[in-house]
Every structure is written in structure tokens, then in C-alpha cells.
Amino acid sequence: MEQLMQEMMKSTKDLQTFWENRFAQLMEEMVKSQNFITAMTRSLEGSLDLRRLIDSAMGRWAEFYQVVTKKDLALIQQQMYDQSVRLEKMVALLETIRDAVCAERPAAPTTAETATDATADSPKAARKAANRSR
Predict the structure, then answer these.
(1) Are 89 and 77 members of one domain?
(2) Distance between CA 57 and CA 52 in Å, rounded?
(3) Is residue 7 within 8 Å of 13, Cβ to Cβ?
(4) What is the CB neighbour count within 10 angstroms for residue 133?
(5) Residue 95 within a domain
(6) Are 39 and 72 members of one domain?
(7) pLDDT digits (tens, 9 = 90+) for 24-82
(8) Are residues 57 and 86 both part of a single domain?
(9) How far apart are CA 49 and CA 97, in angstroms?
(10) SS percent in the chain: helix, strand, coil, step 5
(11) Do 58 and 75 reside in the same domain of the chain?
(12) How many domains does one find in the chain?
């Protein structure tokens, strides 16, 4: 009985393998045919057209009800990124200018020296120097 079951299982596996191979051959032939390619192309074009229609309808709906869309958020994100890049360039340029100015200028006088010079010039300058030293 056991041997009969094993033979039945083996023949079932063989039959399954045969049909799997045959199905694979038929699918390969069908995929290579011009009719299949034409049908798939039409289906894909129809899907893309439908997608465009849905996108435009959703865009009009969002605009009418003033709802923020993914495209709006992406645009804002891109603008923020662009601003960040500009600010980084400005910071780098300002640091370069600061370094160039500091390299050309002699050392700044100390606060005590500034206070004595300022008191000699005017009372307003003296007040400024006093405020700086605090």
C-alpha cells in the first residue's frame, strides 16, 4: 500500500512538472507575440491617461477647497532647501570677508585705551566706551 502511495505521489509530481513546463512555454510564446505587446501597450497608455485625469481632478479639487497637496509641500520643501543653500553661501562669503578684514587691520585697541581716548574726544564717546566695558 505504501509503495502504491509513493508511486501515486511521484506520478502527481511528474504531472505537475509537465503542466508547469508547458504553461511556461505557452506564456513565453504569448509574451513574445505582437498581439500581447500591443495589448499591454494600450493597457499601460490607458492607465497613464487615467492617472493624469485623476491628478488634474484632484488638483482642481484641492485648489477649489484650498487644501494643501503633496505637490505644494514638495514645492515648499524645495524652496526651503534653496534658501538654506543660499544662506550657507552667504555665511561662507561673510566669513571670508571677515577673515580678509581681520588680516588687513592691526590689532584692535583694548577697552581701557578706548575709554581714555574717548573721554578726551567727547562725552558721548565716553558713554559709549563705558557701556562697552560693562
Answers:
(1) yes
(2) 9
(3) no
(4) 10
(5) yes
(6) no
(7) 999 999 888 899 999 999 999 999 999 999 999 998 999 999 988 888 999 999 999 99
(8) no
(9) 55
(10) 90, 0, 10
(11) no
(12) 2
Buried-exposed string 14-52: b where 16+ CB fall within 10 A, e elsewhere: eeeeeeeeeeeeeeeeeeeeeeeeeeeeeeeeeeeeeee
- pLDDT given at position 69: 87
- Identify the pLDDT of residue 119: 47
Enclosing domain of residue 60: 9-66
Percent of the chain with pLDDT over 70: 78
Q: Is residue 93 part of a domain?
A: yes
Length of the chain: 134
Q: What is the mean pLDDT of residues 121-131?
A: 60
> What does each C-alpha distance from 3 to 7, 8, 12, 13, 53 come to in angstroms?
6, 9, 14, 15, 63
pLDDT, greater one: 121 or 33: 33
